[in-house]
Amino acid sequence: MSLIDESPLSALQTYFGFNEFKGEQETAIQSVLNGKDTFVIMPTGGGKSMCYQLPALMLEGVAIVVSPLIALMKNQVDALRGNHEDPAITHFLNSSLNKSEAEQVRADVVAGKTKLLYVAPETLTKESNIEFLKSVKISFVAVDEAHCISEWGHDFRPEYRRIRPIIKQIADVPIIALTATATPKVQQDIQKNLQMVNATLIKSSFNRDNLYYEVRPKKDALKQIVQYSLNNKGKSGIIYCLSRKKVEQIAETLSVNGIKALPYHAGKDSKTRSRIQDQFLMQDVDIIVATIAFGMGIDKPDVRSVIHYDIPKSLESYYQETGRAGRDGGEGHCIAFYSHKDIEKLEKFLQGKPIAEQEIGSQLLQEVMAYAETSVSRRKFLLHYFGEEFDEENGPGAKNCDNMRYPKPQYDGQEEIHMVISAALEHKEAHKMQFISAILIGEHNREVDDYDGDKSSFWERGKEKSDRYWNGIIRQAIVLGFLKKEIEKYGILKITDKGQDFLMNPKSVMLSEERNYRDVDTGDTMVQTRRGQGGVADATLRKMLVTLRKDIADQKDLPPYVIFQDVSLDEMAIHYPIKEDELLRITGVGAGKAVKFGVQFLELISKYVAENDIERAEDLLVRTSSKKSSNKVSIIQQIDRKMNLDDMAARTNLTRQEVFGEIEQIVAAGTKVNIDHLIQESMDEDCVEELFEFYSETEDEGIDSALVEFEGTYSEDELRLMRVKFLSDVAN
């Protein structure tokens, strides 16, 4: 292996313009340069890619980088090309290339222009590619996102298991494996499968001390997300959901509330996904709402928040996804919404899968549940999961989580800890947490019955408490080091040396009360209707608003409802809007109405709030989004094209009456539309004039009085159309 005659630091300055390495980068790079197998475990944002990019540029030949996602490859290739004059310095070879593009890649590799070649594992296994790679000089192979090798990893890819034998076919070269999320079990799997047991192991701390971890009950989660985003307008954030439908819904709700947000998921074509990704990187959009397909390899240093609307399937996923926040060392707020019902849903998804996969998936979910429900330091809990000890009192970022900042009450749990360890010992350290807690509360289940659990000396010893309580005790005993889980055996509890010592010499152990999310309703009540949101209208303010509306109506010689309808005044009297963006969240108030009539109402409310020392609720009113409201632009365009109601209904997959309702909402919110072509289908000028005059004199918000007045003369549709025309012409 011939090296370019310069030191790694000199090469770093030459190729990337940096004057110093980050963390353990230099050690990893030197190991690769020395031709040794190297295993790098670094947290997200730790600079893993530099560990193979720099040696690839320094060594003779081309380095093969095995990477799981096309989007990730593209991002890395674009970033590398930005540092070099010749774009041929790096290429990717995958299914996204056409034949001529793939030939150009091969030509650049053969010519020695390409130093890094990114390939998907599926691409690597093709016989034609294996033969091609045999014909060129390979410097080494980098296996990125190496946790994909392990069934215990959060993104298991069976094709990753075949990497080692294929590398052997191609060339006898060193391997560097890299991951941001490896528990001791996953680490062992990776080394075993890649046959790199004697590799140089470089493991950085998993602690990201600038990240603030918080778990919230999943109640009105969508409303909380909108509030948080409005309070942090202009800051970059990612919101993760498990379903594409929820991704679209949240992105649309954020958009209608004035937040620059876009949805991202695998259901969109690659060109659209690439465009959305670029908009996020270029700060043209603030929030990306995404499934887990988004974010791998996205090198955006200033993501300020990562929100999990749905709890992830594993702590590895959670850690990796939250790791996309604050990569520049600045603010990084990680919020997860949690309900035990979500865990139950995920457990149902496991049904029907092979037993081994169910066992692994269930164990990973148990860890997620434990993290969410724990009341100990979340940082300590996460780091313990990844095999790292942490001082929750004085360690870096020790107070940077909700549990440490707002601690639950503590109590001496010496007796409880002694009981769970003793129960584990009596049952020969051969069972999981759920078995021990069932014994303690005296609950029969298949495992308890199979092992005669009701004959245990611990049967019903803790029956005055719930299984949730005892599971919490066991979780804290694990984090405190008295017990450990045998991962290979799907979570069997074993007693540690510290636990054995505690049995012999019991002493005081301070425990925290567990958090309870079991009874949280996962529904988003704000999605249902804005009219039905909680709160009691301020009767005094409501009267003042009615008076103001009447004064304006008299000045303009219009019925009061044309100014604002009753539902709008009701919400103003509940939520006290004092700024235009707040007024725009009130039902029936669009941009047109806000400009035309809003100023006087805002002045009145603002003065009333100040004079009466009213503390306005922080949970501002949120505009909701629905499938129907997403048709608004389409309907306006179709009206402009003079389409009839039946054609509009067909185009929007709505009924004729639903289209009517949409048009009425559009006009009520202050948008002007021209529906003369619809009216002229059945009414002449005299009819129009007669109904226009009627609506200008009635104070009825709806068409009830018109139905009585013109019984049998006009149809209900005709009366509704003329009411829309009247409002559009005089109010908007």
Brief overview, please?
This protein is an alpha/beta fold and 732 residues long.
Protein described:
There is one protein chain. The chain is built from 34 helices and 17 strands. With 732 residues, it is an alpha/beta fold. It folds into 5 domains: 196 residues, P-loop containing nucleotide triphosphate hydrolases (Rossmann fold), CATH 3.40.50.300; 159 residues, 3-Layer(aba) Sandwich (Rossmann fold); 95 residues, Winged helix-like DNA-binding domain superfamily/Winged helix DNA-binding domain (Arc Repressor Mutant, subunit A), CATH 1.10.10.10; 84 residues, HRDC domain (DNA polymerase, domain 1, Orthogonal Bundle); 103 residues, Arc Repressor Mutant, subunit A (Orthogonal Bundle). The strands form 4 sheets. Strands 3-4-2-5-6-1-7 form a 7-stranded parallel beta sheet, with helices on both faces. A hairpin with a 5-residue loop joins strand 15 and strand 16. Helix 14 runs antiparallel to helix 15, helix 19 packs across helix 21 and helix 23 crosses helix 25. The radius of gyration is 32 Å and the shape is globular.
